Structures are given as C-alpha cells and as structure tokens.
Amino acid sequence: MTYVNHKRMGALALAGFLMLSLPACKKDFLDINPLVGSTEANYYQTPEDAQSAIIACYNPLQQEVTNIQGSSELSVHFRWYFGDIVSDDATKGGSGDGDEPQLLLFENFQGNGSSKLVLGEWQSAYKGIAYCNLALARIAGIEMDEDLKARYLAEAKFIRAYWYMNLVTMFGGVPLVLEPLAPSEYQQPRATADAVWAQIEQDLAEARVDLPFRTQLSTSELGRATWGAATGMLVRANIYQSDWLPAKELAEEVVASGEYALDPDYGNIFKLSGENGPGSMFEIQFMNASGGNWGNSLEGTFTNVFQRARGAFGGFGFNIPTQDFVDEFENDDPRLAATVFQVGDVMGDRGVFSEEATGMPHQYYARKYFSNQADEAPFGDPNPNGPSNDRVLRYADLLLMHAEACYHLGEEEAAKSSLNLVRQRAFGDEEHDVTAGGPMLLQAIYHERRVELGLEGHRFFDLVRQGRAADLLGPLGFQAGTHEIFPIPEAEITLSDNLITQNPGY
Questions:
Q1: Domain covering 226-285+389-466, topology
Q2: Element (H, E) at 67
Q3: DSSP letter string, 76-98
Q4: Residue from 43, 45, 37 nearest 20 by CA
Q5: Which of 164, 403, 468, 502 could form a disulfide with 415 if both were Cys (CB 3.0 to 4.6 A apart)?
Q6: Taking a C-beta distance cutoff of 8 angstroms, is the pair 301, 388 a contact?
Q7: Under a CB-based contact definition with an 8 Å cutoff, are residues 134 and 19 in contact?
C-alpha cells in the first residue's frame, strides 16, 4: 500500500522487519507494483527500490488498528482517544461502560500498563520507526539522483520524528532506536525524554533542509512531507519543551514563506472538499475505496465510524463532547456549530439528531470527522474505509503556538497579532479581537487553542505541557507526578528483560 492523495516496533523486535512485500498505492502518486519475494539481499539496489522504501515509511501512519504482536487481539489507536477523552473536552461514549472498558479506565485515570491501548500505541509507533530506520540505512547507498535521495531521506526523518513525538508525549523517555537492529540488539533500555526530544529536533531540522515547499508539490503528491510540515512540527517540539525563542523564530519563517493561509471558512476545513486546503500543513491521507477490513485497514480511517452517532446514524458514538467544552465557546462563535452536533441539528444526509434516533442520552456528538452516507466506501465494509484525512498540523495551530511563544518572550503585541488573525477568521470581523495583556492574554490564547483545535486530539497534551492538568483534570482523577504520561506497556517491559522501567505511579 503506497501512501498518497486519493482526493487527495510493534515490539522492538519489529525493528529488524524486512519489507518483503510493498503493496501498491493510491491512485496517482508513486504507483509501484508489489515487490513480492524481495529480500534485503536483493532489495535497495535501484531508485525504484528507494521510492518503494519511502512509500513504506508512510504506510504505518494510516494503520489505526494494530494486530497486537503475539496475540489474536486487535487494538485501535487514535490520538483523540488520549488527547480528547482523557481530558475535559470529551467523554468516552460508545454503547456504555462495557464498550472499550480500558479506555474508560484511562478516562478516569485508572488505566495501567496491561492495557492493549497503550501497547497498540507503542507497537504501531515502533513499526513506523522500523520502516524509517531501514530506509535511512539503505537508501543512502543507492546510486541515484542526489537531490531525490536527499528528499527521500528527509521524508524518513520527518516521519521518524512524528512517531517519536507521539511516543515521548505519551510515555516520556522511550528506547531510542535509530538504525535497524540485529536480533541480539532487540532489548533496549529507555532513553531520557530529553534525549528523545533532542533526536526529534535533529531529525526535523535536517529534514526541512531537503524537503520541498508545499507549492512545489504536484496535486498527486499532496500528503507528503514538506518544508512547512517539518518546520511546523519543529515549532511544536520546541513549544512542548517551552523553548520559546526558537519556536517563535521558526513559526515566523513559516508565516513569512507565504506557503499557508487560513481558510476563510472555518467550517470548510473538515469537509472532504476542504482537505489539503490552504491552512493544511500536514494531513495523514485516507480514502474510502481501498477495500480495507478490520485486520488490514489499508488506506481508510476508522475515525468516521467511531465518532459518528449510534442508532439510526450507524456509528459507534465515541468522543462525546462535554458540557464544559461546549460552554467554552463564546455565544456567537460559529466554530461551535462546525465542531459539535447538538440535538436538533441535521447530521448531513443521515437525518436529524435526536436522543430517540441515537438511542443514547447524549446531547452532543463530535462533528469534525463526520462523513455523509454518500461518501461511504463504494464496496466492502464502510467502517474501516472512512474517507476523512487526519489533520495533524494546521496553520491556525502554528499561529497560536507563535502567539504563546511571543507571550512568554514578553512580545505581547506580536502575540495578540497572531491570536487575532485566528479569531478574525472565525468571527469574520475585528470586533472580537483580544486587546488585554498580561495573564488575561495568556488565558485568551489558551481559550483559543481549546475552541479552534477542539476534538483534534490536542487538549490533554496541551494541559500537561502548560502545567494546568492537575488543576483542571484533578476533579476527574488526575494526579500530579503520575498522570502527565501514560504507563509503559507491561509486555514491552517483559520483552526488554526489564531494561525498560515503568513510569512512576503505575
């Protein structure tokens, strides 16, 4: 399965995985035939092999269902599981407490390392890292156009940094694997969180040098890593570490490039027609026609069906917005209607939302990843073939990170300028501009992040990095010193022969 625009370690043992078969891709981009029977001995010889190796690096980004290694169990893993549900923005939902009970435990800050949810996160990330490490180790030796080679290596570094950022924000320090491992090397200790962040920064800094600008991509290449994506993710890495000056300067490079703009219509961003739009800095591409199933999800997303209302709407009903989240929106903020379905709203071509129609007592459902019935897979099971891209990084996010960095550097006018650009797009005027300074300005930036990026998987991680999680999530069970990060999967501790240690409090 290659990775491109259609409309658009496991355990550490997977670090030695050989790409024996690289299935072919979405429609236009990099249409490579499967290399059935290839081995490392006869692979990595030609430019075409290098191209296939990079396609393979993108593939795990689309895998939201993990076959747990050494088990017949499947584990779904979404960033919004932990970013939204383990926060004050959403509750688990589903059919009740018995539906994804392990997620309910994490929602109540009672989850532990035996959960397949954290194991799925861990294994999917290290599988992705393994592909990137192989590409980086082997493509360098292929005789081919040097500029294209540099781009491929930069893409692998970007994707590796993406996976390590997921890991370090979830678990803190993790094993730092940067090359393919021999079986005798599979047992690796944890690196410090600082060491992981340093590697993320290095990968992204090196990647952005050799990645193309978004405006240099053909339509069929949308979804591939770009200079803007790497620079924006580097801003995020610095923000998470409170490194305000480099975050500010890098964000200003992106703004000055003119590569991105805020979509004038906020409601358009999460429509299928709005994918890879002017404010899109990086999206994981999904399509509805690859024929994926629950064991092999291929190129469709599960988010559409998981977040859609139950009952007459055919969804699973997860990620239910809280009243506290809904109340965060100003009365005239049009983003609320683009983010949340409320009772009485028309849910696309699926009908009018009522409690009777859903069979559940919820007043709200998430809207951003809603898909119409008309957009369902044209063949096969529609559930694992959702069409909506995962918006990983948006220009509005970058502007709000810039505002936050400027505030902490004492540059309040610059902070207000970036903040108000986001608000002006939302409200369509300057009457809603923030004029306050000091702590009220910082609270305004925090407010804007919550409503602008709501239900996109940021909230929990924002509260932790801002040092506000204990105050706001304490009533939900959050304990400072423990719940800033999640438990290391017990299976991985065992596989490491206890070289990997558990996080405090678990």
A1: 1.25.40
A2: strand 65-67
A3: E--HHIIIIITTTSEEEETTSTT
A4: 37
A5: 403
A6: yes
A7: yes
The residue with tokens 């004038």 is 264
| Residues whose CB is less than 8 angstroms from the CB of residue 349 and which lie 6 or more positions away in sequence, other chains included | 372, 373, 374
Ordered alpha helix ranges (H), 281-364: 303-307, 323-328, 335-339, 355-358
pLDDT above 50 for 361: yes
* Beta carbons of 166 and 79 less than 8 angstroms apart: yes
Q: Tell me if 99 sits within 8 A of 320, measured CB to CB.
A: no
- What are the extents of the domains in the chain? 1-207+473-506, 226-285+389-466, 303-322+330-383
Burial 40-79 (b: 16+ CB within 10 A, else e): eeebbeeeebbbbbbbbbbbbbbbbbbbbbeeeeebbbbb
Alpha helices (runs of H) in 61-181, residue ranges in sequence order? 79-80, 101-107, 116-139, 146-171
Please give the backbone phi and psi of residue 282, each rounded to the nearest 5 degrees, phi first.
-160, 125
Q: 422-431, pLDDT tens digit by residue?
A: 999 999 999 9
Write down the mean pLDDT value for the chain: 91
Among 94, 103, 101, 11, CA closest to 460: 103
| CA–CA separation, 117 and 436 (whole Å) | 42
Read off φ and ψ for residue 101, nearest 5 degrees.
-60, -30
Q: What is the pLDDT of residues 460-477, one digit of tens each?
A: 999 999 999 999 999 999
Q: Are 260 and 279 in contact (CB under 8 A)?
A: yes
Task: Please tell me the distance from the alpha carbon of residue 289 to that of residue 286, in angstroms, as a whole number.
Answer: 9
Amino acid at 266: Y
Using one digit for the tens of pLDDT, what is the confidence trace for 392-415? Answer: 999 999 999 999 999 999 999 999
- Name the pairing type of β-strands 364-366 and 340-342: antiparallel
Q: At 139, list the tokens.
A: 């493509």
Size of the chain in residues: 506
Q: Do residues 365 and 346 touch, judged by C-beta distance below 8 A? A: no
117-156 pLDDT, tens per residue?
Answer: 999 999 999 999 999 999 999 999 999 999 999 999 999 9
Residues 6+ apart with CB under 8 A from 472: 88, 463
Domain 1-207+473-506 annotated CATH 1.25.40.890: yes
